[in-house]
Amino acid sequence: MTTTSTFGLELPAAAIAGVGSRPFGVYVHVPFCATRCGYCDFNTYTAGELGTSASPASWLEGLRRELDLAAETLGSAPAADTVFVGGGTPSLLGAAGLADVLDAVRGAFGLAADAEVTTESNPESTSQEFFAGIRDVGYTRLSLGMQSAAQHVLAVLDRTHTPGRAVAAVGEAKAAGFDHVNLDLIYGTPGERPEDLDASLDAVLSAGVDHVSAYALIVEDGTALARKVRRGELPMPDDDVFAQRYERIDAVLSAAGLEWYEVSNWAANDAARCRHNLGYWDGGDWWGAGPGAHSHVGGVRWWNVKHPARYADSLATGTLPVGGVEQLTPDESHMERVMLTTRLRSGLPLDVLDADERRAAEVVVADGLLTQVDDTFVLTDRGRLLADGVIRSILR
């Protein structure tokens, strides 16, 4: 049995009935960037690429309409437990623009009393006044893009901020009252030396953040970085270097009291963990609003059209800007649960696995890549380096 929204989205009645029994988050995608980083393949646009076809004003109007339609589509949707404003570069909206975004979420869904509200920011488009402004309107958490403390590494990534700006921004954010601040690192960039990574880690620790995300550089098709690698101007990142860099990151952060809770994420304590992302990893529900944003409710996924002009045009007619929908089968849902929970320090529950998968996991334990902790399988230090392979071995 299904229920068909008059707004262009069909959801099973069972999926909607379960809303509220699982964590519920709202993701807002801001598609605007001042410049395009060479490694990035996210759904983002510079002003020159958009021309007059779309603007922050038309995007915000569309966002308000989408969130209102979302609340009507879900019916008795609960107040949002978490909100995450990502991009793109949300800080380009300024404090007033981000206040408008949060007002739109509040107006459509409301916020839980202890809601976690995060925005990503580029350090170069922030200031003491910016941080104070968004803290005052209800943002509780920040994620700042640092990537590296080495200027030549930032140059390879086409990042425009100066190396010391991220640390200075953290200080400004703390002065504005933010207790929870994340810094993003990218490791394995061509030309990055061990001492460059150490300098980045020293900067992170000197900033005193309570959360760090660190990701291996991926050369995505269609990016400027991929074209440089294809032309031989830059070498392809090396898997052995990735492993060495990861081990160094984990050792330094762990010694400083930040423990891994997901393969690419470290936090000082439970309160510092990103609850919004845990909602993704733990199979919660979320509505993704904005061009190209993805959503999930009760085993149904859908995604919005990518271009901001098409996004706004669809909503101007009262229709959700859905670009595609998929209903996960039981096998797909099972596979996804194994893939996501294996990456968590809390581990993969044994009772999730069938007999063949449990036997396969026990082989991985014997290989030293998993360990059994009570009724869960947890990645070992070496297993984290080979997490994708571990998952494939269990699901084969």
UniProtKB/TrEMBL annotation:
GO molecular function: 4 iron, 4 sulfur cluster binding; coproporphyrinogen oxidase activity; metal ion binding
PROSITE patterns the record matches: RADICAL_SAM (PS51918)
SUPFAM superfamilies to which the protein is assigned, alphabetical: Radical SAM enzymes
rRNA processing found in the keyword field: no
Family of the protein in this entry: Belongs to the anaerobic coproporphyrinogen-III oxidase family. HemW subfamily.
Its biological purpose: Probably acts as a heme chaperone, transferring heme to an unknown acceptor. Binds one molecule of heme per monomer, possibly covalently. Binds 1 [4Fe-4S] cluster. The cluster is coordinated with 3 cysteines and an exchangeable S-adenosyl-L-methionine.
Protein name per UniProt: Heme chaperone HemW
The organism's taxonomic lineage, starting at the top: Bacteria, Bacillati, Actinomycetota, Actinomycetes, Mycobacteriales
